[in-house]
Specification:
heterodimer, A: alpha+beta, Arc Repressor Mutant, subunit A, 4 helices, B: alpha+beta, Immunoglobulin-like, 4-stranded antiparallel beta sheet, 16% strand
């Protein structure tokens, strides 16, 4: 359904900062690899749009949650690698708690209520 | 790169309202992502052309992406941090500019003094000197011009980069707000010897700052090691000179005079003729039988002149409405300037202990460079008499530029 796609897109957009921070917990990555890692870990359920990814990355960097450095590519163009800062780690832990509370509430209403 | 991808990236860069260096970085970042995505799609079976089109479709319209990327960087937090950082950086730059300006002014002053010495030797009579201390203010303010220029350029550069805004957005705000603050300090707060040229020089300080901000860029301003070393050397020079100057400025000048006898080597037929010739009949009438007075004192402390006379009863027995008056004097002989028929400053004398004391400011009237201090009083017949002359000095208007502009 068209509405389902829109809702899914809005949900993905709203959770994108959490997904990015969680993906970078294991080490630094550049934008393209962040998208691939999210897709792989979600089993292809989540595919962030590039149009949303980079504004979110830059916003997280401006807020101090991420740091970025340029690295020369092997035989290719340079790429910008992002890594978590201490502030970003704190924000990630807080976002994970908030998500757990939110998801738990939705599950209780939508799934347990239907049963 | 593929012409279609290049065209997309050019449109994206044009849509970014960011400093030029950041536009380049965003272009490179998105460009690398497009190449990786196109390769992935080509490996999945699409042709190169279709892979490129699909990659561009996933990124979305370049103007929309450009606006989102601009909005993501231009946060309120970044703006506040940038203003604070730019103010701090501009203050440091102003200090460095001031040191450089002082060095330049010192060189100019030394060359000027050398010129005066040569002129004295060549042309003989008299001495060449600057009589109006306001000109020293002009020299000092010239150093502030350099400081203002440095501050303006650095402020725009640091504020633009810190707030992720192009310099063209930052310049008008920096010029308006910074220019207003600097104008308030330069014209309303800084106190110094003033003449019309020093007031003009001070008015140029905010003008120089505004000119510097309007021509500033968002490119980073680098300083060489040699420039830093020169700044330190000049700082050391200023650190030694400034305390000396402050000590000289706060030390009051004391002058003592005593009333001398009338008639010694006077080329005039009478004392009245002498007083008329020298203009001293303007403050009051000649007193043929002056009272026996004690010590008379005149003390000058940063523009405030205090005059005192010992022997109250000798004066108050004959006069009332006693006043201390400051009159403009001529440059040549210390005579009263007869172009002015009233004192430029006056104050009542009051009785303290066994003396009469009064105080007037001589540094808050424009165009007063020489003055004479007298004591006058009203006699029983209602006429005002000249009781005593305490002495005279040269001085300069001292205050802010605003004080000078609004002074009588």
């Amino acid at each position: 359904m068209f509405e389902d796609r829109r809702i899914r897109a809005q949900l993905l957009k709203g959770t994108l900062p959490l997904l990015i921070l969680a993906t970078l917990r294991d080490g630094e990555l550049h934008g393209y690899h962040i998208v691939r890692r999210i897709r792989e870990r979600s089993g292809d359920a989540l595919t962030p749009s590039e149009g949303s990814l980079y504004p979110t990355l830059h916003r997280l960097e401006a807020e101090g949650a991420l740091e970025a450095t340029w690295r020369d590519g092997e035989g290719g163009p340079r790429r910008r690698y992002y890594r978590l800062t201490q502030r970003g780690l704190t924000a990630l832990e807080s976002a994970e708690r908030d998500w757990a509370t939110f998801a738990g509430g939705v599950n209780r209403v939508a799934l347990d209520g239907a049963g | 790169m593929d012409p279609a991808l290049d065209a997309y990236l050019d449109a994206l860069a044009a849509a970014l309202d960011l400093p030029s260096q950041e536009r380049l970085e965003v272009r490179d970042e998105i460009g690398a992502h497009l190449l990786d995505l196109r390769s992935e799609l080509a490996e999945a079976g699409l042709t190169d052309e279709m892979a490129g089109e699909e990659a561009l479709r996933r990124l979305g319209p370049p103007d929309l992406l450009g606006r989102e990327l601009t909005r993501a960087r231009q946060t309120h937090r970044a703006l506040l941090a940038a203003v604070g950082g730019a103010t701090w950086a501009a203050t440091g730059a102003a200090f460095r500019g001031l040191i450089l300006g002082i060095a330049g002014v010192t060189v100019v002053a030394m060359v000027g003094m050398l010129g005066m010495a040569v002129a004295t030797r060549l042309f003989g009579n008299g001495t060449w000197m600057i009589g109006d201390a306001g000109w020293y203010t002009v020299l000092a303010v010239a150093a502030l011009w350099v400081a203002a220029w440095f501050a303006g350029r650095v402020f725009v550069s640091v504020a633009a980069r810190g707030s992720h805004r192009p310099a063209a957005q930052v310049r008008p705000w920096a010029a308006a707000i910074g220019g207003t603050l600097i104008a308030w300090v330069a014209l309303g707060w800084l106190t110094a010897a003033q003449n019309r040229f020093s007031v003009i020089a001070l008015a140029l300080v905010p003008a120089v700052f505004i000119a510097a901000t309007l021509t500033g860029t968002d490119r980073p301003i680098e300083r060489s090691g040699r420039a830093r070393g020169a700044s330190l050397a000049l700082l050391a020079t200023v650190a030694i000179a400034v305390p000396l100057l402050v000590w000289m400025a706060v030390t009051p000048v004391q002058v003592q005079t005593q009333l001398s006898g009338v008639g010694s080597a006077v080329p005039y037929a009478s004392m009245q003729d002498l007083l008329h010739a020298t203009g001293f009949d303007l403050p009051g009438r000649y007193v043929a039988d002056p009272p026996q007075l004690g010590t008379m004192n005149m003390q000058v402390d940063r523009g405030l002149v205090t005059g005192s006379i010992e022997g109250v009863s000798a004066v108050t027995a004959r006069w009332h409405d006693l006043r201390l008056e400051a009159w403009r004097a001529t440059q040549e002989g210390g005579e009263i300037d007869k172009a002015f028929t009233t004192p430029f400053a006056a104050a009542p004398m009051t009785i303290q202990s066994d003396g009469l004391v009064g105080a007037v400011r001589v540094d808050r009237t424009r165009d007063v460079s020489q003055w004479v201090l007298v004591v006058t009083g009203v006699a029983a017949d209602g006429g005002r008499d000249l009781i005593a002359t305490l002495g005279g000095m040269n001085s300069t208007f001292t205050g802010s530029a605003w004080d000078w502009l609004t002074a009588p």
